[in-house]
Write a structure and sequence with these properties.
It is a single chain. The protein contains eight helices and no strands. It has 178 residues and is mainly alpha-helical. The protein folds into two domains: 9-114, no CATH class; 122-159. Helix 1 (13-26) crosses helix 2 and helix 2 (37-62) packs across helix 3.
Length: 178
């Protein structure tokens, strides 16, 4: 029989958030220098971070991160955006993309990211369509009639004189006029 770890009732996220909000509302305005590290975390950090982590997990579930090995979802990018948007010290809470955040923009200027592979960008439907089109193209190209036509086209390109040969006399005329 497996041992199942169950979080005590006091660690349930909803209850913890309510307690932290209660602590924050009942606290006299404390200065950062006056708080103990535990109070600082309880009053200033957790009330913003815990809802962000909750939103992160909800978004990861929506992006099917727990069902696949690789996804385009980047939890750190999501949490950075979410915390920037929901920062209580900022007054303007508009939707802002990750690349528009000033400190992220300066970081990315010095540390550019590699491009994301198409397999992570495309939806399952788009990927299936591309795979099917390549497969159908392969099936058509391997037919004998198509093989024969492609061989004929290769031969015609090589011998038909498509690449124009310019005689020496014409080249000399251009050199004299230049």
């Amino acid at each position: 029989m497996e041992d199942v770890l169950v979080a005590p009732e006091s660690l349930h996220p909803d209850k913890l958030l309510k307690e932290l909000q209660h602590l924050r509302s009942n606290q006299v305005e404390l200065e950062v220098d006056e708080c103990s590290p535990v109070d600082y975390l309880d009053i200033f950090i957790f009330p913003v971070l815990l809802p962000g982590l909750d939103a992160l997990i909800r978004q990861a579930i929506e992006e099917k991160c727990f069902e696949r090995k690789r996804t385009k979802f980047n939890g750190l990018d999501f949490l950075t955006e979410w915390l920037y948007r929901n920062n209580p010290r900022r007054t303007n809470h508009e939707d802002i993309s990750l690349e528009s955040i000033p400190f992220v923009r300066s970081w990315l200027k010095d540390h550019p990211r590699p491009t994301i592979p198409l397999s992570l960008i495309w939806s399952e439907e788009k990927a299936a369509t591309v795979i099917q089109s390549y497969w159908r193209g392969f099936l058509v190209r391997k037919e004998p009639e198509v093989q024969e036509l492609r061989q004929y086209q290769r031969e015609m390109r090589g011998t038909s004189g498509i690449s124009i040969q310019i005689s020496d006399s014409i080249l000399q005329m251009f050199k004299k006029s230049a």
